[in-house]
Please model this.
Amino acid sequence: GWAIIGRIMPVAFGAIYALAGSVGPVLGQNLGAGANDRVRRTFLDALIVTMGFTVAAWIVLALTGSLLVASFRATGETAALILLNCRWIAPLFVFLGALFVSNACFNTLGKARYSTYFNWARATLGTVPFVLIGGWLGGAKGVLIGNMVGGIPFAIAAVWVCLKMIDRLPERRTPPSSTRRNRLSASES
Model:
């Protein structure tokens, strides 16, 4: 079941991976321009797009779950795991997507080690205990649920830290365009 789910998820959520890879340059351009409000807006908009796309992918997965089961010729517990993932676990991908977007933000803000910290924490503290407890309580289904639920606190924390970093960016005071033009005109005279 996990092997099949591992094939479905990257295809279903490929746009979120692409978004996480493409938002960094937009954040960087606004950071370089000293437009801290646009850095924050870009980060928040990327999170909103992540949410929207997750909902859309979840709807498609929920509606086509049975078709996926049939196309992989899955039966028994394998089929049950695929359906559980498509119908109930898929929306939790929004938290993984939020972590990806936060990583892009950390990297752009020159704080790449925060990406490492949050990814390491999610992959260990957010996985091992949750998977063990999930497996103990619910078998293979509990493992799948635990794997995704364990990432929620780390995604929320990463988003919060990113927002705090953005709020602490130094203000750049640039004169309005008309003031710059007036100075240029005066210096040319």
Q: What stands out?
A: The chain has nine helices and no strands.
